[in-house]
From TrEMBL:
UniProt superkingdom: Eukaryota
Family indicated by similarity: Belongs to the complex I NDUFB7 subunit family.
Xref: PROSITE patterns: CHCH (PS51808)
UniProt-annotated location(s): Mitochondrion inner membrane; Mitochondrion intermembrane space
Protein name (record): NADH dehydrogenase [ubiquinone] 1 beta subcomplex subunit 7
Membrane topology: Peripheral membrane protein
A single Gene Ontology CC term: mitochondrial inner membrane
Keyword set includes Hydrolase: no
PANTHER family named in the record: NADH DEHYDROGENASE [UBIQUINONE] 1 BETA SUBCOMPLEX SUBUNIT 7, NADH:UBIQUINONE OXIDOREDUCTASE B18-LIKE SUBUNIT
Keywords tagged on the record: Disulfide bond, Electron transport, Membrane, Mitochondrion, Mitochondrion inner membrane, Respiratory chain, Transport
Functional summary from the UniProt entry: Accessory subunit of the mitochondrial membrane respiratory chain NADH dehydrogenase (Complex I), that is believed not to be involved in catalysis. Complex I functions in the transfer of electrons from NADH to the respiratory chain. The immediate electron acceptor for the enzyme is believed to be ubiquinone.
Pfam families: NDUF_B7
Amino acid sequence: MSSTLASQEDLKKHKVPLLWRDGCSALLIPLNICRKQNNYKPWECDHERHTYEKCQYDDYVRRMKEAAKQKAAAAEES
């Protein structure tokens, strides 16, 4: 199991919506806890937010590279 993937029990316990249960879900839980503790002040929880957004970006880049490889492979077959 990846360090950025939370267990189903943790996701249920912290009421993470289904749409947010992705590869970075373990980083979203502490971010949401911090946000609630600080009354959703936008200047708080910068470290947690940055870590979560970096994970989301890295996942996006990985998926785009994979899609480009699949597209190139499909073009070679044609």
